[in-house]
Write the structure tokens for this entry.
Amino acid sequence: MSAVIVVHGGAWAIPDDLAQASVAGVKAAARRGFLAMKTGASALEAVELAVRTMEDDPVFDAGHGAVLNADGEVELDAIIMDGRTLAAGAVSCVRNIPNPVSLARAVMEKTDHVMLTDRGANRFAQSIGIQEVSPESLVTEQERREWEKNRKYSSGVKDLFNSQWGHDTVGAVALDCSGNVACATSTGGIRNKMVGRVGDSPVIGSGGYADNLSGAASCTGHGESILRVTLARLILFHMEQGKGTAEAVNVSLTYMGERVRGGGGAIAVSRTGDWAARFTTERMAWAALEEERLTYGLNPGEAFKEPVNMLN
Ligand code: GLY
């Protein structure tokens, strides 16, 4: 079985001045996850590493660089899921954890639960020594300025993610050489969200899902829409029904657009390594890395290819 990793940096109307950094960020994340798998890491470890790379990159709405809620605070959500066992871990509303995906993995591996939120998640993080930082250190100057400019929550749904107001989420899916799949998703959510609002990203079956029997998916876009159609699970349902990965993602995004007027995107990989990256927003930075090549894109219909040896 050949390993493959696919990552996204969020589906929204990425402005030109963030385009190059967004593409560079997803390429770096895919490379980190893939190289780990080449040296023996599992799909689960690869998606965690890829998402951590994007959480550390301030161009993305996750970890450092996350958008701010109505009170001007960071509140972060993340999920990770292991397709071998359907084990999943998630955190929501954490404020001072730079890499929520790793805290989500600890919830999965060290507790009997699937999701911890707010102060309970923080208490658990402290108990296991997960890195904590001051919440302010996760806020970029640019996000503080954007938040000052847009102090009111916009209630548009599809339009929200086709405006530069959107900004959204990172994620990764992977298949390793042993045939195991995994997914991870991490986000700061939507700018000016209500305090305590939790979107799709940490919710199993919405922001992500992984099952060795079908594949793995990670979603991005308007969280309330994704939650209503349980987008990640919907994609895998269509794959289980025999659709190819790209068709399963397309059909699911179309359904979300028609049924609840929601815009967004998703990446998915099947248990045989058939992968796709699709979106209904103006742009989504994504990258996929396989044995032979790196493929990446930003605009609809775009897929640039680079030989893998260019990465070395
Ligand atoms: N898709 C991320 C969110 O709505 O929170």
